[in-house]
Each structure stands twice: as C-alpha cells, then as structure tokens.
Amino acid sequence: MKKRSFLILLFFASVLAVQAQQPAPKNIVKADDQALAKIKAGKAYLVDVRTPEEFDGGHLQYATNINYNSPEFKAQIAKLDKHKPVYLYCRSGNRSGKAADTLQTLGFHSFYNIGGFEQLKADGFPAEQLQNSASRK
Fold first, then answer.
1. How far is CA 57 from each of CA 1, 67, 92, 96, rounded to the nearest angstrom?
2. How far apart are CA 33 and CA 8, in angstroms?
3. Which has the closest alpha carbon to 62: 127, 130, 108, 118?
4. Do residues 66 and 106 lie in contact, with contact meaning Cβ atoms separated by under 8 Å?
5. Rg of the chain, C-alpha, whole Å
6. Do 114 and 35 contact (CB within 8 A), yes or no?
7. Which of 26, 59, 76, 98 has its CA 20 to 30 A from that of 105?
8. What would the pLDDT profile of 24-37 be if each residue is shown by its tens digit?
C-alpha cells in the first residue's frame, strides 16, 4: 500500500516537473470585437503561426498561415505592412509570443499575441471548417 502511494506521488511529481519546464505563453492580449472588425476590414492582419498541417486542421477565419518553424518565417512576415496591426496566434500562445518578439526586432509598430486557437474559438472568433481526411485526398 505504501509502495503504491509512493508511486502515485512520484508520478504526479514527475508530471508537475515536466509542466514546470514548459515556457509560459508570452504576453497574451485578449482580442476584442474591435480587433476582429479591423481584421475583417483589411486594416489589420490575423496571422496563424502554426504549421500548415495544424492550419489545415482548422483555423480562424481571415487568418493567414505563416509557419513560425519555417526557415522562411522572417522573410515572409517581413513582407507585411509594418504600420498595420498584426494579431498572432498559435496553439497555446508560445509560438505566437516568440513570433511577436521577431516582429519587434523587424520594426513592426503594433503586434499582439492573442493566444491559442481553441481558446480564441471558445471566445467567439469565427473559425474555418476543419478539413476532414476525405477532402485532402
């Protein structure tokens, strides 16, 4: 019985240690209706920095996919108008936080890490229909 309790305690301690090593998302800003209106009107960018596979699995409406993990990320993001606001998201907010750091170094004037895809959907951002495996063939 003591051995089982010790193993359970050890398991939970291991899980907590692994989670503690995950970097916290950087400076997530809650996007509001005004941000969505700017995006819809073409006065701001909505950039999904996830992989193309993640993007194809579902993404926010009006989003452009620029993969943060791609070697071409800096070159692709640098093509955007630096005077327009850029709203960045990924799965959890980590990659979009790193992408925001890149935009800062490239001289963008206003950029926002708005967090993760699932949370944004839950908050009411419109999402594109998920593509099923049959439509990819």
1. 45, 14, 15, 18
2. 45
3. 127
4. no
5. 18
6. yes
7. 59
8. 455 789 888 899 99
With CA atoms as reference, report the closest residue to 111 among 21, 38, 54, 16.
38
DSSP E strands: which ranges in the chain?
45-48, 64-65, 86-90, 111-116
pTM of the full structure: 0.77
Alpha carbon distance 73, 13 (integer Å): 37
Structure tokens at 17: 């240690």
Rounded distance, CA 137 to CA 134, Å? Answer: 6
Residue type, 47: V
Buried-exposed string 71-93: b where 16+ CB fall within 10 A, e elsewhere: eebeeebeebeeebbbbbbbbbb
Q: How many CB atoms lie within 10 A of CB 16?
A: 10
> In the structure encoding, which two tokens stand for residue 127, read together?
């999402």
Tens of pLDDT, residue by residue over 62-106, are 999 999 999 999 999 999 999 999 999 999 999 999 999 999 999
Task: Tell me the C-alpha distance between 16 and 101, whole Å.
Answer: 28
Q: How many CB atoms lie within 10 A of CB 31?
A: 23
